[in-house]
Amino acid sequence: MKKTTLLILLIPFFQIASAQKYVTKNGHIKFYSETPMENIEANNNQVNSAFDISTGDFVFKVLIKSFEFPKALMQEHFNENYMESDKIPTATFTGTVLNFEGIDFLNDGTYDAMVKGKLSIHGVTKEVEHAGSFVIKGDAINAKAVFNVKPADYNIKIGGSVADKIAKEIEVSVDVNLIKLK
């Protein structure tokens, strides 16, 4: 009887906890490399992300093979030669919005955010901290950030004839529309 009573008391708690979470399975990440030799851009619209407004916890999971390039050969080289996506299929971010307590998630508006956590790319994990923004509208949160990643920091080896065609720092743009979990 005590177990049943405890379970009945916890049901509203779990409903409240899930009401604090926002998720998406179709977020967008773009990366851009600009050099005098060539510009390279790839887009991924299959980004999984979750955000808990009660704790500020934020996670992303990105399937590397889901990046699409304008040229099939670029995509093949990216997956086989540089990212080794058969061996290391995902990139992840696990972190926290440092100033989440100063963001009013119950009222529509645009808010600056600072996110800190662990970014794992190509099997290497680094501590990162980047600025971004939240646009809150109803039961949805749009999260955006733009930051740079150095392939060398993540043991992504770019050599030979393409070394001059790929920037030493790649611009990464994140744009996810998170919907309240019900």
Structure commentary:
The protein has helices at 2-18, 72-82; strands at 21-34, 39-52, 57-63, 90-97, 109-121, 124-137, 140-149, 170-180. By secondary structure, it is α+β, with helices and mostly antiparallel strands. It has a single domain, classed as Beta Barrel (Lipocalin), CATH 2.40.128.110. The protein has an eight-stranded antiparallel β-barrel. A hairpin with a 4-residue loop joins strand 2 (39-52) and strand 3. The longest helix is centred in the first third of the chain and has 17 residues, at 2-18. It is elongated. Mean pLDDT is 90; it is low at 1-18.
In summary, what is this structure?
The protein is built from 2 helices and 8 strands; from the N terminus they run αβββαβββββ. By secondary structure, it is of the alpha+beta class.
Give the CA-based shape: elongated
Let me know the largest β-sheet. 8 strands, antiparallel, barrel
For the termini, the CA-CA separation is: 29 Å
CATH topological fold name: Lipocalin
Present the secondary structure layout.
Layout: H1 2-18, E1 21-34, E2 39-52, E3 57-63, H2 72-82, E4 90-97, E5 109-121, E6 124-137, E7 140-149, E8 170-180
Antiparallel strand pairs: 1-2, 1-8, 2-3, 3-4, 4-5, 5-6, 6-7, 7-8
